[in-house]
Structures are given as structure tokens and as C-alpha cells.
Model the fold of this input.
Amino acid sequence: MSFMNAIWLTTQEQRRRRRRKRRLQLAAVLFFLAVPGLLLTALPRSSSSALPGPGFDASSPVLSPTSIVEAPAQPPVPDHIRSRDIAPGDTLSSIFDLVGIGQSTMYQILAADEQLLALDTLRPGNRLTFTLDEETGELAHMELYIQPGKRVMYHRVDGATFDYEEIVLPGEWMPEFLDGTINGSFYLSAKNVGLSENETVNIADLFRDQLNFSRDIRAGDTFQVVRSQQFVNGEWTGQSRIEGVRIFRGKRLYSAFLFEDGNYYDHKGESLARAFRRYPTQGQYRVSSAFSRTRRHPVTGRVSPHNGVDFAMPTGTPVLATGDGVVTRVQNHPFAGKYIEIQHGSHYTTRYLHLSRSLVRRGQAVQRGQRIALSGNTGRSTGPHLHFELHTKGRPVNPLTASIPMASAVPKGKLALFNERVNEVVALMEVPSQRIAQPVVASESPRQLAEQTHQTATVASPSS
Done:
């Protein structure tokens, strides 16, 4: 009996083994049958459309999964070209360290930039591109990309000197009409219709002698604004200007229109800004170095432009703002020394270099004749003096001879031209179809605002 049980148990174990073997074989068969189906399901749907079917044209290209996924290879950047997009917190010194160029070369670049001072205002959106000499490894060129319409090129002259070339493109100035009704504050109402913070502040500043925006403006008052924005090859440069403003407060009208001299006047031609001073001091001091395009630098001995006027004066002499404006820079430069820059409206900028002390801060509004600094001898200087610059539409001009607004109204000889300009701007305000920005059409008159900006490429060298 025990023998029969042993045979039966052995037979039963063999059956179990055969069943397990059959199950494993069946599972293997099912697995290999399922794999092709899984692979076909995983393929992109677009690949099935590339397979031959009804109406298939053998001459048509067939896209494979590989050709869809793979992107064209980008050409490698040459080792002798290095670029850096300006990021928050970047300084010129840190950027030179990142790209592996010595600080001595940086100071050579700063010396070339003394008259332009473009490298003192690096901000996100700017880009620096460095081109090294492939044989020596020295910096040969550096480009500062500011915006699509403005670049500065710095070129090596010799082993210790660079020159600069400023490239300004005119682009297209496209006008746009914006209007709104006061609901709350003017600031918020203007922002709600699309005006920037700077544009809103500038408009309030235009009417500062006529309106108190926090007290006089009330709900229901309306405003109209025509602004122009600059585009280069279809790309906005970030530059804009206010062409005209009308504010209706009850039955009263307040207006401001930009004229060819860079100043704003009301619809009657009366100035909204006070006139300029010719000199930045209370008295007149001896001119120790005049404005010149061919002046020989007193330190380097090289012939290079002098973009301002030097007045010899004792350290500590009060320096005055030559016109109403807003302080845009208060900085300390290794070659320009302590300096101040003031923006006067949309067309004029003044700079005051080699100061011993600043009496204003960045963003502060100043008035004509206000004391802003004390003269000095800081930076690269041969003695106590004030270097004074006047820039018109971004270009340096002789501050002692340049045509600047000295009167309180549009000159009678230009009143007809001003009235024509006012009519153009008012037409944009009153024709709804002009609300959308349109390219500026060049006027027959070369004095029109649309023709004021022109292409320039100026080469200059370090000077003091």
C-alpha cells in the first residue's frame, strides 16, 4: 500500500511540473505576440500619416520618427568670442571676471567710455560681447548692446588704449492715441489705459506749475495722450516720447505739445517749462578747455574729442542746474570722477563732472538755478575744474553756443509751424481710427518731429 502511494505521489508531482512548464511556455508566446502591438501603440500618431496609403505619392518626402525629433545642430560659438547678457546684480568688474578678461583691460575700456559713460548704466536686457585676438588672446573689440536702435563698439587702438563708436539707428516712431476718465487717482487711471510709470510721472511733471494732481483732479475728469514709440526692424526699442496731452477738468482745458526745440508748450504757444541758464555757476569762470572735436588730451597727449566745456574754479564752488529736470545719475567714475546727470524733458541732458560733493540724489526733481553740487578735482583731472556737458537728442553739443530755449513762449517766427504741429496731434486725438499705432509719415518739412532722429555713427576717444 505504501508502495502504491509512492507511485501515485510521484505521478502527481510530474503532472504539476508539466502544467507549470506549459503555463511558462504559453506566457512566453503571449509576451512575444504582445510586444509588436505595444511598440506600434507607442509610436507618435504623426508617423502613421507618413505611411503609404490611398493616394500616396512616392515622390513626396516621408517623415520618420528620427527626422521629427532631431533638431538641426547649432554651429559652435568660436572660442575667441564671449558674450554675457546682463543679469540683476551684475557689475562690469564681475562680468570681466566671468569671461576671463583682466581688470587692467576693463580700465582701458572705462577710459574710452569717459565721455560717453554708457557702461555706468548697465541693466538687464543689455548685452556685452567680447572678441579676442585669435593669436594674442587680447581683447580686440567689445560691443555693448543697449537696445535694437543703439549699440556702442569699443575698438583697441594700441596695447593700452581703446576708442569707441556709438551706433544709433533712427527706426520708426509710431504714434498711438490713449485716453481715459479719472477713476481714483490720475496715476492709476493713466496706468490702466496703458501709459508706463515714467510716462505718467512725466505728464504730471509737465503740469506741475498748473495742477496739483492729488488735489485738483477729480473723478469724471478726462485726459487724452498721443505718444510715439520707436521700432527698429519691427522690434520695440523701449524708447517712447509724449507728443501731446490734453486734460479736461470741468470746463477748463490744460494742454501740452512737444515742439521741435524739445520743449512743451500749451495750445497757445506758452511754455510749460522755464528757460535754461547758459552757465552752470553763479558767476562766469575762465574756460580752461573749450568744446572741441580735435582737442589734444592733457593727460594722454592724444588728439580726441572734448564733449564739454571745462571751467577753471576752486574746489567747493557751487554748481547750479541749468534748467528744470530730474536727476538721472549720481555716480563716481574712475576717470570722470564724481558726476551728476540731469534729464530736462525729452530732448536735453546736462552732465557735471569732477565734483567734490553731490547735493542731490537720483530721481530728485530740480529747478533751474538750484544748487546741485560743489566743484572739485576727482577722477582723471589735471587741476580743480568743472567739466560741463549739454546733450541734445542724445548728442553732445557746445553748451556755450547751442540753440537752447531761453524764452517763455514759441518765437513769433515759428508760431505758424507750431500751430501746424498742434493740429496734427489734435487730429490724432479726435479721429478714432488713429487710436491704433501707425507708422509716422515723413513730413515735407525737415523741421518736423518725425525727422528729428537720424542715423549717427560717431567715433570718439578718451578725453577729460
